[in-house]
Amino acid sequence: MKIIPIIRPDELIRKFQIKNFKLYDVRTGPDAKEKYLEKHLKNAAFVDLNSDLASIDDPKNGGRHPLPGFQDFIKTLGELGIDRDSHVVIYDDKNGANAAARFWWMLRAVGHENVQVLDGGLQYAESQGYPLSSGNESYPKTQYVPDYQNWQLPQIWIDEVKLATQNPDFVIVDVRESQRYQGITEPIDLVAGHISNAENIPFSENLDNSGLFKSPELLKTIYSDLFENYDRDKIIFHCGSGVTACHSLLALDYAGFEIPNLYVGSWSEWSRNAL
């Protein structure tokens, strides 16, 4: 039976009874590790977006957060204490909209099905009385033995995206905030704007006013037109650096859709190539 990709804090407490349950804090920012050490959900180990979930080199070639090599990521999973039998739950401090969703996508992309993202993230779990801890926590190292030797979820690369901008059979979805999409502001990348012919469905539309994921039924109404009008392999999601786009892919999976293409390089790569 397919696992539901979103989990609530009250459900999470019951997961402690599951053998090989693992909880990970994937918050981001320049002081993310320091904040984790000060306060995190009990039993959560820290995962670093930049060193564990990306292989950062030249943003012009792959964007700000390109994927690490497949085998490098498999090694990282073992170092984090994850094996094939692990039931993994991930959270961040941005309603799952940042590195939690990215880590979820990467695990699913290596064929790991038992992975969920904590609805509402750190703040909501804390407000619900979930137990907290401080200091560093970790799990014993393991060896992750994958069934595959490369990523299993669909990706698309910059040359293919360029062709897609000229092909009406494709749709490109930009999940960044509308002001970034419109080029009104750009707080991170060098150039403001968006990929030619891209639509804007901000990732914030996946969430209700409390910062929780909308129901699968409501999410289905948001995205049904995409899947009614385009084949799954011709739908492309992107963001600034291939991280937040995974939040919308997570929402799509929660709503029961097949996961479409992720353009990992996203605007950070596209904008640096004068396209």
UniProtKB/TrEMBL annotation:
Rhodanese domain sequence ranges: 17-134, 166-275
Record-linked Gene3D superfamilies: Rhodanese-like domain
SUPFAM superfamilies: Rhodanese/Cell cycle control phosphatase
SMART domains: RHOD
PROSITE patterns linked: RHODANESE_3
Keywords: Pyruvate, Repeat, Transferase
Keyword Transferase: yes
Molecular function per GO: thiosulfate-cyanide sulfurtransferase activity
InterPro entries referenced in this protein's UniProt entry, alphabetically: Rhodanese-like_dom (IPR001763), Rhodanese-like_dom_sf (IPR036873), TST/MPST-like (IPR045078)
Domain of life: Bacteria
Pfam family membership, one: Rhodanese
Protein name from the UniProt record: Thiosulfate/3-mercaptopyruvate sulfurtransferase
